[in-house]
Specification:
Blueprint (H helix, E strand, L loop, with lengths): L8 E5 L4 H12 L3 E6 L2 H11 L2 E4 L7 H13 L5 E4 L14 H29 L2 E6 L12 H21 L4 E8 L5 H5 L4 H4 L11 H12 L10 E4 L8
Parallel strand pairs: 1-2, 1-4, 2-3, 4-5, 5-6, 6-7
The structure holds NADP nicotinamide-adenine-dinucleotide phosphate.
Length: 245
């Protein structure tokens, strides 16, 4: 299938490792010019060179970062991104009672405000050209809360409301907006949470963690010209983990 992605331009947040890197790599393979963002500039440069992307160091925990990064990426690409992938590191583990208001605020900035800022900055050019793709990387926690991840459980569900609302506002302008919900996937984040195949595999119907490439395949499809009638959706790549219908 020709995904009709050749010549498109994308901005991928959190693109130096894990899911974001896999998405960036897949888009480059499909002929997209890709800018990747992460904090660790040295690693970002190395990964960009490895996969054929352009590095843009940045920290999404800083107020205003989403908008600034879209503007900087526009300079690097010579155009505003056709495809925007909002993604960042996961928030810290914790129960409700252990979680401070400061931790909630930091999570809100990274998971919500940075995405909102970036979408608002990228949207006008997508509207002007009548084509755009917004992909929000969230989590299965958006649909079924996961143990010990109160910030993720609390914030990600609300993001689905944002995605669906925006999708309906811009559906007539050639722009699609979808949420991608990773299940347990083999990245540094899983190591950070102490999750591996031995501990989690038996709880997943597929019997194993997912691989980032399996997640990135969905992202590339949703970013493509072929997914023009899919919008406002929250789609999990989770080996059958979610039980809700
Ligand atoms: N992997 C899973 O199984 C899974 C499951 C459900 C949900 N998720 C969610 O999906 C997202 C991506 O997960 P992942 O597994 O790919 O995570 P990861 O392996 O930890 O990678 C995170 C990426 O985001 C970058 N990043 C982190 N904080 C940043 C910041 N403040 N500003 C800019 N870039 C930042 C990291 O680079 P730097 O550290 O250099 O900034 C890295 O490139 C996370 O929100 C995670 O919670 C993952």
């Amino acid at each position: 299938m020709d995904l009709q992605l050749k010549g498109r331009a994308a901005l991928v947040f959190g693109g130096s490792r894990g899911l974001g890197r896999a998405i960036a790599e897949e888009l480059v393979r499909e002929g997209v010019r890709v800018v990747i963002v992460a904090r660790d500039g040295a690693r970002l440069e190395r990964v960009a060179a490895e996969i054929g992307a352009v590095a843009l160091p940045g920290d999404l925990s800083q107020p205003g970062a989403g908008r600034k990064l879209v503007l900087a990426a526009t300079g690097l690409l010579g155009q505003s991104p056709d495809i925007l992938v909002t993604n960042t590191g996961g928030p810290p583990k914790g129960s409700f009672q252990e979680t401070t208001p400061e931790a909630w605020a930091a999570g809100f900035q990274a998971l919500w405000i940075a995405a909102v800022d970036a979408i608002q900055a990228a949207l006008p050019a997508m509207q002007a050209q009548g084509w755009g793709r917004i992909l929000a990387v969230t989590s299965v926690a958006a649909k079924e809360p996961q143990p010990g991840l109160v910030i993720s459980n609390g914030l990600r569900a609300g993001l689905l409301g944002l995605v669906n609302t925006l999708a309906r506002e811009v559906a007539g302008q050639g722009i699609t907006v979808n949420a991608l919900l990773p299940g347990y996937t083999n990245t540094d984040r899983m190591a950070e949470l102490g999750v591996d195949n031995a501990t989690m595999g038996p709880k997943i119907p597929a019997g194993r963690l997912g691989e980032p490439e399996e997640f990135a395949a969905l992202a590339a499809f949703l970013a493509s010209g072929r997914a023009s009638y899919i919008t406002g959706q929250a789609i999990a790549v989770d080996g059958g983990l979610l039980q809700s219908i």
